[in-house]
Sequence to fold (498 residues):
Amino acid sequence: MRIGFLNPQGNFDSKDSYWTEHPDFGGQLVYVKEVALAMAAHGHQVDIITRQIIDDKWPEFAAPLDSYPNHDNVRIVRIPCGPPQFLPKEQLWPYLGTDWANGIIRFYENDGGLPDFFTTHYGDGGLVGAVLKQKTGVPFTFTGHSLGAQKLDKLHPTPDNLAEINRRFNFTQRIMAERMAMNHAARIITSTRQEQLEQYGHQAYHGAIDPVADDDHFAVIPPGVNRRVFSPEPGEADARVSARIDAALARDVPEDRRNLPLVVCSSRLDQKKNHLGLVKAFVESQQLCELANLAIAIRGLDNPLQQRDQLKGEERAILDDVARLLAEHNLWHVITSFSLNSQAELAAAYRVTAARRSVFSLTATYEPFGLAPLEAMSCGLPAVVTKNGGPSESLFEAAASKKYGVLVDPADPKDIASGLIAALGAPESWTYYHEAGIDRVVSRYTWDRTAEGYLAVIEQAFNQPPAAGKLPIPPYFTNPNPENEIPSVALASLYFKE
Fold:
């Protein structure tokens, strides 16, 4: 089968340029690439279709065609979309249903015919899937990754400030595009059942999809761990990272504590990740302080807590709060910090700290899926993580009452401490979670399993096409001009409906 992945924002090249360095080059690029490669390994021809950029600042994305070494069944296809230079994703909307969709059709007219099926990613890719379905009949799946309504929620909109927020982020176009994608997709792919019910149940999507009544329209397919990187097998970065951790411990903690296990916190500095809650767990529990040290890893800083003046905004504020709490409770002796600057170094740190019988911890207030704990588990590092969101499904099998990690309440430092002690306090407990974590990833959370899930859904939808979507595509997306502009009141009526 010939399958096309529609992903206009961000971009792809053989060197994975700019990944994690720009807000448009986020986790969905890793997702798309890994699923595409895994599908191709099953014998399918796969095209990753993205936007061509002719811009001296972005030379990697100029060629119409590109590829990954040693993956002959995968092409990167770049189609012009609006002006030639790089544009942030929020500025692409006027060009997607016209330039890009029509360019895709023209490309495949000269390439032997359209793909048999499209998978689409984010609202912009989903919109183009709906337009192409209308024009060509080729069905598509929609993977939202994250939806606009939830991002809008976090900005605390009111009827008075909605217009200003919308001017910056173009939520009207995004949410309308997501509604089209949901309504016209052959299937909607979510990572968890919770994502299906909570994200797609938002009132802004009422009338486009019902996550309960339209349950057969959804497929839960979790993303995978890159086990080429996140594996218990030793890697070339292990010795370097081990020496870095030893040096940080010698610098930061007393000699009699340097052989203790570590509670590893390697998430980005974001209030939602709740670093402070993890520190408060050490404040609340003398037993935890006696069992382990806390290790905070930050990209780019050799001594993050002492170099926090090099950070700005929210990142600086978070580490300032951590430092203040440590000083107030005289706990500087239980914490170290160091840099991890790549996925290879992150995986090495997980292996090195697993050898010290340490644990990974992510106490986010909410974690939509939670790939980071699975990456740690894949390296043999047990996970103690938030119960809010995806980890409640990935670390616990309700039907079998089987635990693969420890779930904690991120709002309760005592519960966080208890969870950490449960994993660290007895050798048999640590060994159980060490083994169960690896088994869980291998059996369910690999990219090959993700690809198999997609292929099963695609085969079913291809052989038994669902009914056509009922919502008309707004004229703006196929003929964007002032006359067809979607009024901002359309967003207000969806978002603030009673």
